[in-house]
Specification:
By secondary structure, this protein is of the alpha/beta class. The chain has one domain (4-248): Aldolase class I (TIM Barrel). The protein is built from twelve helices and eight strands. It has helices at 16-30, 47-54, 80-85, 96-100, 106-118, 131-135, 139-150, 156-160, 180-197, 200-205, 216-223, 240-248; strands spanning 4-9, 36-41, 59-63, 90-93, 122-127, 163-166, 207-211, 230-233. Strands 1-2-3-4-5-6-7-8 form an eight-stranded parallel beta barrel, surrounded by seven helices. Helix 11 (216-223) links the parallel strand 7 (207-211) and strand 8. The protein is globular and about 45 Å long. It binds phosphoenolpyruvate. Phosphoenolpyruvate binds at residues 9, 167, 172-173, 211-214, 232-236.
């Protein structure tokens, strides 16, 4: 049975005090929610402050990005070992904002995923099509390319230790959420691709999250889909009530 994960990507929002306050509120409200894993992804400069707040709570934390090299002359970058040192459990890799605004390629994302896994982090690997891809009927092809490119050279054990997030780009931050049927269709396809590349047991075990304008009022329907194992949440993760409201939408996997 796959345990649901609700992950909050705070992106480049909040200051230190607001990050700590949000973490505190989430940790407090999380006490009332059972049967679901919870994680937050603060801006990297506030991970340490959030860590102090969340330590001992049932909420994990992670980073929004990292660099694949272990150390050296890479000005401005952060290694997997540094994230481990900050107590991170997860790292988001291949988010569409990094793919489309910062030009990250599947090959670069693949290097990051391998480095994250080698350091003991759980990568949350994002894939998702643009609106133009969907309208042209290319969703399946784009998702397959991104998944296969990002996961190149991963062993069965490594994919089993990873989380996938399907995030249609047209649904991120737009208020246009994918329908439960649209999400389920892609999640099923992703699982089929994993079954083909690895095997059915591995494919059945990997958690696949949906991301794109998830909020408390639409989460339950999405999370009720058999292949939707949680949510990667942007905007709605900046409010503790909304974030925990989404977690409360997990019923079937408890
Ligand atoms: C995201 O950025 O991963 C995301 C899903 O954002 P939002 O929930 O704001 O659409």
């Amino acid at each position: 049975m796959r345990r649901a994960l609700i992950a909050g990507n705070w992106k480049m929002n909040l200051d230190r005090a607001a990050s700590v306050a949000l973490a505190k509120a989430i940790a407090e409200q999380a006490k009332a929610v059972e049967g679901v894993d919870l994680a937050v992804f603060p801006p990297s400069v506030y991970i340490d402050a959030v860590r102090e707040t969340l330590h001992g709570s049932r909420v994990s934390w992670g980073a929004q990005n990292m660099y694949p090299q272990p150390n050296g002359a890479f000005t401005g970058e952060i290694s997997a070992a540094m994230l481990v040192d900050l107590g991170c459990h997860y790292v988001i890799l291949g988010h569409s904002e990094r793919r489309h605004i910062l030009g990250e390629t599947d090959a670069q994302i693949n290097q990051k995923i391998l480095a994250a896994l080698a350091a003991g982090l759980v990568p949350v690997v994002c894939v998702g099509e643009l609106l133009a891809d969907r309208e042209a009927g290319h969703t399946g092809k784009v998702i397959r390319q991104q998944l296969e490119g990002s996961l190149a050279n991963l062993s069965a054990e490594q994919i089993a230790a990873s989380v996938i997030a399907y995030e249609p780009v047209w649904a991120i931050g737009t208020g246009k959420v994918a329908s439960p049927e649209q999400a389920e269709e892609v999640h099923m396809d992703l699982r089929k691709i994993l079954a083909g590349r690895y095997n059915a047991t591995i494919a059945e075990g990997v958690r696949i999250l949906y991301g794109g304008s998830v909020k408390a009022s639409n989460a339950a329907e999405l999370l009720a889909q058999p292949n939707v194992d949680g949510a990667l949440v942007g905007g709605a993760s900046l409010k503790a009530d909304e974030f925990l409201g989404i977690a409360a939408g997990v019923s079937r996997k408890a």
